[in-house]
What does this fold into?
Amino acid sequence: MRLIVAKDYEEMSRRAADILAAQVILKPDCVLGLATGSSPIGTYQELIRRHKAGEVDFSRCSTVNLDEYVGLPADHDQSYAYFMRHNLFEHVNFRTECLNIPNGLEKDAQKECARYDAVIRDLGGIDMQLLGLGPNGHIGFNEPDDVFPTGTHMVQLTDSTIQANKRFFASEADVPRYAYTMGIRDIMQARRVLMVVSGKGKAEILRQALLGPVTPRVPASILQLHRNCVIVADEEAASQV
Ligand code: F6R
It folds into this structure.
């Protein structure tokens, strides 16, 4: 595990974009695992800028997103499908048929999770998985638990995640209670992992994830065992490490 400390959010985003862009340049037909949330937005802006400058071509890449809320259609402005279109996909040149996100409208959880695991498997696995860090240590929507979940599964969001995400909805009652998420096995099997962490609100949980015991109570702590994981944190987030 390698920790890169950046001065602030902008530098963190540039450093993360350097790593992602290098991945795409070195393997143009790579599979990128992507995340939503506030942490990667700057990274996506930087990738868009580099694409428009002719430096990165995504036309041969495939993507698999980490997660999606259950019950939200892809055109709902809080769905992760909408987020990805708005923050990255519509600004660069991925082919639409190569973009994969769990289908939040599929009511049969078993069917959707099996479908998504098959998508990842058929792509040959993930070359580089981008992650944010949840305030409770979650990665994807793998919430603190007694065991590490393996493949794609449906989760009930914890109160802390609902509280953290309600800022994006009209009211707390509107925050979906369930989500589909890739499991820890899917994330750990990615050939490379890149996590971006920003702000002093993440300092204590980043300390626990990097320096505490490996435990499903802090799902991101499993990354200590990943053989090719880079964490790019800004100075505030890294202040306790
Ligand atoms: C998003 C995701 C989540 C976020 C995490 C951090 O697809 O899977 O694990 O990465 O909740 O969110 P932000 O970046 O908004 O602090």
In short: The mean pLDDT is 96.
